[in-house]
TrEMBL record:
Name this polypeptide is given: RRM domain-containing protein
Gene Ontology MF terms: pyrophosphatase activity; RNA binding
Organism per entry: Rotaria magnacalcarata
Pfam family, one: RRM_1
InterPro entries linked: Adenylyl_cyclase_CyaB, CYTH-like_dom_sf, CYTH_domain, Nucleotide-bd_a/b_plait_sf, RBD_domain_sf, RRM_dom
Taxon lineage: Eukaryota, Metazoa, Spiralia, Gnathifera, Rotifera
Amino acid sequence: MPRNVEIKASIDDHINNIIERIRPFADGPPRYFTQNDTFFNCPSGGRLKLRIEQDCPAQLIYYERNDIASLSIPKLSNYSIAPIMYRSTCFQWEFYDPQMSGSIDGTDLIPHDRAIDRAYESNYKRPHCSSSYFIGHIPPSCTEHDLTQIFPNATRINLIRDIVTREPRGYAFLDGNIDRDKEYKFNGHLLFIEDNASKKVFGWKPRRCGGGLGGKKQSGQLRFGGSQRPFKKPFHMTEQDVLSLSLGGIRGQVDKHRTLFLTGHGQTRIHIDQVKGFESTIFVELEVILRDDQTPEHGQLIAKELCEKIGIQEENHIKCAYIDLLLKKDYQNDCH
């Protein structure tokens, strides 16, 4: 199990002054983000929390730590982190299911339209030579020649046309190199680009068979799980609900704005935290991640040197977690 040595303290100073003291010995510029930690009752005696962090996958974190506040005795934490990956497209799931794609959150059990049944009954077989990319939102005036100008690195372009009228149907398939970070336009009109699902996704069924991705509300055949219409998070049950039911309830929640510095080639994380409920206090947290060949005492020496550089006084050390501080504050308020 991974280990780190932690020091947590409160600092009576402005956050900008603390940042400027840390900046000279940090590995690089700070990162700013928000975190929400939900703590659950944990029968093992350790701490278990579900962490929702801005622009990152959710994480389930379990850790065991001795609650002390001393520069002479290491505050050792053994922890385990399990990312909770939320998949918003069938490309991330790597398979296609008509019923799943017919549901806004991928969880409905009853088909919303008859085409879903038709998709299950169809015997679609992927073409032997299928293209790499799907190009959509193509205006009617756009021709194959125009597309070759827009995608100069394409090796093959197949603009789909109506079998009777031979008019373009607004989409094409393409082989070759495409810069996915770039926007491609025709006469100012933004084109839609996605991986060809028939080549990337197991069990694919195209729109003509009742499947597909995207669609319009007017057609009644909306399909989710593409980049244009990704799955929404399930409404009926969250990870937090499941954990709360299985573990016997929630202890509490911690919301904070965090400023993160890395130092020592990434070995130590320096957190400057503004915690909801303690708006007038600035907290600084040091986490020295121990290598296999390092003892807790070694990590404590690194943390102690950083305390001196930042200006953290031992009398301001905090022995417990933020959740314990908040619960203690709530208890004191209730007593009054």
